[in-house]
Amino acid sequence: MRCDKMRICLLVLLFSLPMAFGVSAAAETAVSIAVAANGPEQNATVSEKAGRAAYFLFFDGAGKFLAAERNPFADAQRGAGPQAAAFLADEGVTLVVAGEFGAKMEQALKSFNIKYVVNTGVAHEVVQAVLTEK
Q: In whole angstroms, how far apart are CA 89 and each of 19, 46, 82, 111?
């Protein structure tokens, strides 16, 4: 009997930890937007090539600029698109914006349930436009 009570207490503690640190299911499913860009600034231009973009700019679901990361697959010999898609999936991205997507990257994005939009211009302006279209 004592062992059962201890198990129940441990389970309650385990399930209450995320709430104690402010983590919610809504936060885990928040929209994260990646823009394939030619530079690391939020006013950089959107790259024509998604898989070979120099940088990925990350925005939250409200369009707030979060970070920029160099694309580790920009100079890959082959398979840059699918590798970039896997990288974005690991980053928790749910939507990607670029000037153009190759067929293999489109397929990879679909396999990760990541939506993609073809658009060009200034990164932060494009994100705002995409968010208003939703």
A: 25, 19, 10, 10
pLDDT tens digits, 15-59? 444 444 444 334 444 669 999 999 999 999 999 999 999 999 999
| 99-109 pLDDT, tens digit each | 999 999 999 99
Q: Which CATH class is domain 22-133?
A: alpha beta
DSSP state of 40: S
With beta carbons less than 8 A apart as the criterion, state whether 79 and 104 touch: yes
Report the distance separating Cα 134 and Cα 111, nearest Å.
22
What pLDDT, on a 0 to 100 scale, did the predictor assign at position 133?
A: 87
Listed by start position, the domains of the chain span 22-133
C-beta separation of 46 from 77 below 8 A: no
Q: Which residues contact 126 (CB under 8 A, 6 or more apart)?
A: 35, 46, 97, 119, 120
Q: What pTM was computed for the model?
A: 0.77
Nearest residue to 73 (alpha-carbon basis) of 47, 55, 48: 55
